[in-house]
């Protein structure tokens, strides 16, 4: 039973077909470009590990890692992210819905505090901005 938490859900329509959006998330070279990440390693399968060093504005580098819990190609990606000081990983659900040559993407997460949720939501919006720019240039 999950406890009531602080959730967010972001839905956007991307101007790219679903296979291109999927490839942007699961191809390490592509992910590194749009997510401002270095040293990207993605083992995209249930139980597979992922890691990346995010480079945030100002140049700070933040190492991130986790595992995939659900992988449905071109449809759904559920990944856990290891959070320092937290016993369980933070889970992010990514859902893709094809809409002709466009794709609806939905990201959602749940947190214990509003502060954690707000930080993650801001980060996810920045990620989606980068993804949108990457797909537009592709």
TrEMBL record:
<comment type="similarity">
    <text>Belongs to the AHA1 family.</text>
</comment>
<dbReference type="InterPro" id="IPR013538">
    <property type="entry name" value="ASHA1/2-like_C"/>
</dbReference>
<protein>
    <submittedName>
        <fullName>Uncharacterized protein YndB with AHSA1/START domain</fullName>
    </submittedName>
</protein>
<feature type="domain" description="Activator of Hsp90 ATPase homologue 1/2-like C-terminal">
    <location>
        <begin position="15"/>
        <end position="135"/>
    </location>
</feature>
<dbReference type="Pfam" id="PF08327">
    <property type="entry name" value="AHSA1"/>
</dbReference>
<dbReference type="InterPro" id="IPR023393">
    <property type="entry name" value="START-like_dom_sf"/>
</dbReference>
